[in-house]
Structure formats: C-alpha cells, structure tokens
C-alpha cells in the first residue's frame, strides 16, 4: 500500500485550491520530505508543476505569492518541471507523489 503524503488534509486542500486557480490543467507532484515521510512539522512543501513548456515568470510569481499569503504553516517551494534539468527531474521522479 502506498504511504500517504506527510501533509494534513486541510493543508493539501489549501494547496490544491491555489493550484486550481493558476494551473488547473497541470499535474502537480509532491517531492522531498513530505513525499518520503521524513518531514518535520515545519518542513517545506516541495511541488513540481508538470508541463512541456516553461511557465511564464509572472505566473510562477503569482503562484508563489498566493502560497506565501496562504494559511499554510510552512514554506512552499515551486519547481517548474519544464525549466529544470533532466537530472533534477530524475531526482524528483524517484520519490514524487501526486498532490
């Protein structure tokens, strides 16, 4: 059985709501400690937004601002899948889980 993400349901809903507003057509993966089950209470939430083409910088800025202004009790790091190296994609893919 697949292990659950290390994120409270209400926090996952906040994240999904924000992402729905900006990138409703994109799949989003959780990676890092919240995907592997090694998170501490205030560990950040690492998210990768999948897509073939890089997201416009103003859109990435708006997403980051929405997370910064949200009620989430920790920092959210956003990665644009199309803008990272193949090696980093491999690292993400090795333990990523869909949000």
UniProtKB/TrEMBL annotation:
Domain Polymerase nucleotidyl transferase: 15-95
A Pfam family this chain is assigned to: NTP_transf_2
CDD domains: NT_KNTase_like
Name of protein: Type I restriction enzyme, S subunit
InterPro entries per record: NT_sf, Polymerase_NTP_transf_dom
A GO MF label: nucleotidyltransferase activity
């Amino acid at each position: 059985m697949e292990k659950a993400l290390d994120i409270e349901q209400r926090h996952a809903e906040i994240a999904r709501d924000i992402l729905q507003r900006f990138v409703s057509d994109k799949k989003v993966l959780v990676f890092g400690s919240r995907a592997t089950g090694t998170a501490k209470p205030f560990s950040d939430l690492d998210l990768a937004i999948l897509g073939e083409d890089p997201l416009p910088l103003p859109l990435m800025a708006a997403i980051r601002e929405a997370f910064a202004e949200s009620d989430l009790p920790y920092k959210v790091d956003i990665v644009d899948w199309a803008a990272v190296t193949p090696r980093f994609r491999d690292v993400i893919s090795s333990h990523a889980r869909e949000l």
